[in-house]
Structures are given as structure tokens and as C-alpha cells.
Design a protein that fits this description.
The chain is mainly alpha-helical. The chain has a domain of about 50 residues. Helix 1 packs antiparallel against helix 2. The mean pLDDT is about 90.
């Protein structure tokens, strides 16, 4: 069906774009935190970096993409 292989699925474009956006933000936050935690950061700086990372990780963790069925078409 649709010329898809056994390992291929059809997903909702908006959900995929939502996931890609959340992953982009998470990647940027990881880079920020890596930079912020170099050297000897203070406890407050570590807490702030972790809060930033969690704020950007939660949307990615909340994304869930299910394969579309023929009925959802």
C-alpha cells in the first residue's frame, strides 16, 4: 500500500514538524548547558542550566507520534 516497505510508516506532518522543532530546541539547550557548565560554575549557575535544559526537554518528551492508519487517511 502506498509503495511503502515493511519498515516505513505514514505520520501526520504537523506532529512530525512539532517533534522536529522540539528536538531542535533540545539540541540548542544541550549546547547552551555544555557551554554554561564548563569551568567551575556556581551552584546557582548549575541550577539555572538544569532548569533551562528541563524547560527545553519537556516539550520533546511530550511529543508522541503514532503511525497513521488507512482510516485516518
Amino acid at each position: 500500500m502506498h509503495g511503502l516497505g515493511d519498515g516505513d510508516v505514514i505520520v501526520d506532518r504537523l506532529k512530525l514538524e512539532e517533534l522536529q522543532g522540539a528536538l531542535y530546541c533540545l539540541q540548542a539547550a544541550i549546547e547552551d548547558v555544555d557551554r554554561d557548565l564548563t569551568g567551575r560554575p556556581s551552584a546557582a549557575e548549575v541550577r539555572e542550566a538544569m532548569a533551562w535544559l528541563l524547560d527545553n526537554a519537556r516539550p520533546a518528551a511530550a511529543c508522541w507520534i503514532e503511525p497513521r492508519t488507512a482510516e485516518a487517511g
